Each structure stands twice: as C-alpha cells, then as structure tokens.
Amino acid sequence: MSALRTTLLPLTRRAAGLATTTSKRAFSATAAKKGGHSPQYDPPTGWLFGVKPGEKYVNEGWENLYFYGFLGSFVVFGVAYAWKPDTSIQTWALEEARRRLEAEGILEDPDHKKN
C-alpha cells in the first residue's frame, strides 16, 4: 500500500497543478537585474553642484517656490506657536485654586478695588 502511495503522489500533485518538491520555480516571472549604473549616470566632476568657477548658477523653476514655501511655512509656524493658548495643567490648577479661595473669602479678588 505504501509503495502505491509513493508512486501515485507525484502524479496526483502534477495533475492538480501543485509544485512537486523537485521542481524549482522563480518567485517572479521577470529576471532580477544585478545592479550597476543606468545609462544616465553622470560621473563626478569635482565642482560644487556641477558649476565651474566663474560660471553663474542658473536657478531651476522649482527652486524659488521651494525656498519661499519653506520660509513662509516656518514663519506661519513661529507665529502660531508664539500665540498658542496656555493649556497646561499647572495654569488651570492655579486659576481653579484662586477661584475657589476667592469664593470662600480667603483670598481677595484682585479686580475688586477698595475705595
């Protein structure tokens, strides 16, 4: 019985479309590329940003937008951070304690003026 089972098992796997243990299939249908540089590789020239001394650097179209966009966002963030409300627990506790002490009469109301 076991000899029949070992003989029929590879046949049934092949008929069902399952891979047998002896077959080796690649995970991908395309072959893997083994590194290297693309044809657009620019070898280093030794000049900063590729500009030779004496030549003027020409801005690309996106650079001004990028520069002023970052600068503007930092200014907006700084203004918003400077005027954000104080929501710390210490400030709330101090105000709550002062309000309760004023309600009990232990602490005088600083807004109340004596004549």
TrEMBL record:
The keyword Transmembrane helix applies. Keywords: Electron transport, Membrane, Mitochondrion, Mitochondrion inner membrane, Respiratory chain, Transit peptide, Transmembrane, Transmembrane helix, Transport. It comes from the Eukaryota. InterPro entries: NADH_UbQ_OxRdtase_ESSS_su. It is a single-pass membrane protein. The keyword Cell cycle does not apply. Its main location: mitochondrion. It is found in: Mitochondrion inner membrane. PANTHER family: ESSS SUBUNIT OF NADH:UBIQUINONE OXIDOREDUCTASE (COMPLEX I) PROTEIN. Complex I is composed of 45 different subunits. Interacts with BCAP31. Accessory subunit of the mitochondrial membrane respiratory chain NADH dehydrogenase (Complex I), that is believed not to be involved in catalysis. Complex I functions in the transfer of electrons from NADH to the respiratory chain. The immediate electron acceptor for the enzyme is believed to be ubiquinone. Belongs to the complex I NDUFB11 subunit family. This is NADH dehydrogenase [ubiquinone] 1 beta subcomplex subunit 11, mitochondrial. It comes from Podospora bellae-mahoneyi.
